[in-house]
Design a protein that fits this description.
mainly alpha
């Protein structure tokens, strides 16, 4: 179980590192826009991301 969790974390880091590596200007502009959102909007994005992850885990498991 621990091995699977560590592999999932490693994959997450690789995926999250792709955009800053491939397109740093786009990543910076996107990050700047996200910092200008309200707390509610950021929470909605986080909730949507978690729900999408749960759906994907359920479908592919």
């Amino acid at each position: 179980m621990l091995n699977t969790v560590l592999l999932a974390c490693a994959l997450m880091l690789v995926i999250e590192g792709l955009l800053p590596f491939l397109a740093p200007r786009v990543w910076r502009d996107t990050f700047r826009r996200v910092t200008e959102l309200s707390d509610g909007q950021i929470r909605f994005i986080g909730l949507s991301s978690m729900l999408a992850g749960i759906v994907l885990l359920t479908v592919f498991r």
